[in-house]
Amino acid sequence: MKKNENKIYFITAIATILISFSIMVAISFKSSKIDFKPYNEFLNDLNTHSVSTVYLVPSPKIEVLLNNGTSYLTDNPDSNTLRETLLSKNVSVKDKSNTYMLQTISSIFLIISIGYLTISTISKKKSKGGISSLNTEDVSSVAKEKFNFNSLAGNEEAKESVKDIVDYLKFPEKYKKYGARVPKGVILYGDPGTGKTLLAKAIAGEANVPFYAVSGSDFIQVYVGVGASRVRNLFKKAKAHKKAVIFIDEIDAIGKKRSNSTNGSSEEKDQTLNALLTEMSGFNEDEGIIVIAATNRLDILDPALLRPGRFDRHIEIGLPDVTAREKIISLHLKNKPFNDLNIKDIAIKTAYFSGAKIENLINEAAILACKESSDFITNEHIDTAFSTIIAGHEKINTSSFKYEDKKITAYHEAGHCLISLLELPKEKVSKVSIIPTTKGAGGYTLTLPTDKSYQNLEYLSKKIMVFLGGRAAEELIFGKNHITTGAYSDLKQSSNMIYNMIAEYGMGKSLGLLRLSEMPTSIQNASAKMVLDECKDTIDTLYFKTKTLLLDNIDNLNILANELMDKETLSYDCILKLIEQNN
Ligand code: ADP
Ligand code: ZN
Q1: Which residues are paired to 446 by β-bridges?
Q2: What is its main location (predicted)?
Q3: Where does a domain end: 258, 287, 316?
């Protein structure tokens, strides 16, 4: 709306300038054609009664019309008595000629139009350059997207966890009736190109509501207040539609944890963030507006953003596993001519590719096929495209393609999984994967803990064994010299647990029931060695037990690891089936 209005003003201003300018040129052209006569000749004409009319205008020249119809210009004497003289000689006097009036009006219009254009250009430039702009410029793009959940392959869990949001957007009144609180804000986090934007568009598409997309960086201006006013404007527009999805990409640009620096841009960030939070608390549950934000990392966001009533639902969008990759490949091959492609094979080769990277691969292959005027995209095109893409990507990614790395991760995760199955069978291993997470782990094993208020000594020891299972498997299979840093966070957690068991929970021998943190510093220092020794003994014993257990079940370890290398992600049912088949 605002943009269109501006356009109309702009066009009107230009048109006015052109018209006024033409009029002025025409007038001056006409007057340049009128002869000029010295003042004394005019006086002559006056005395001979040949003057019919004189146009008295406040300008250096006045126009004189003779009885014979011709006219000329002469100098303006600027005298007060001229009018009287003229009238006494029966000459008609006109104060302002039409031309003079036209000229004046044209120049006024010309000045106004030029002024308008100058001011609007300056303010536009300022808002771009970040100096000042309180005009609420449109930074969002709105579209009734045609996307739906089928536009996004894989990510089944993420789709599942936003289904209620789609339902809410369709029937907000229903939720109001039940007094149910639906999240106002959702954060999608995960690696770039994994389909966060696509999922947000799909939500809007499924619910058939407008989709407003902005990027956090659009709000960052050096000048304080601009971002905040843009946020308010964005919400105003979305609210005008009643129902809408507002998508803020790169939310970290405004929502990073606050630093101590007090420069302009950080103040601006705070104001923008506050405006966003205020707007979010300002709309009601029954309004049907959802704010979806995307970031590559959840951990760098300001906690204020994540509180209840704000962005309180966090959904990880992970890299696709082999099955999901197969679906993504098929999706992007749709509407493209291909022949004899081994889609399964491409899916296996594209380990650690994001959806966007897969799309890029298919597109490169299509370009190659097109260049060769080939009838179809073939395996050769895919292979060539693959090499160019791999060569063009960062070192980290290419190295992670190494078979060896995949194998280590597979054994590491299989180790966690197997120990968990054997030692804590009631804690269901819901998912094992060798696809890296955004939190930096090479893979992950998810368990569903049982409902227990207390954790006893036996449980804690077994839990530590599950943590140690990853490193133990690495050592057993690849040897002491090939253990990796992959166990970093496992060791961090087990060390913490063991220390707490001995020093805080009264479960150890060296301190008995004494809590170390309650002791005076002198005693804490004196018993440090003793506590350390007991911690070390405990972890060594548990590690030995873990290794022995794995060794006794080495077949199952191999089976799990191999299947992981193949499928990349295993579900609970799949794991159980594998183990049962072997026993
Ligand atoms: P993000 O917002 O996570 O950076 P996008 O949603 O912008 O990623 O994804 C970029 C492109 O990659 C999409 O337009 C789509 O073509 C492709 N893509 C990514 N993930 C998927 C997926 N799961 N299924 C299909 N296409 C995908
Ligand atoms: Zn681990």
Answers
A1: 431
A2: membrane
A3: 316
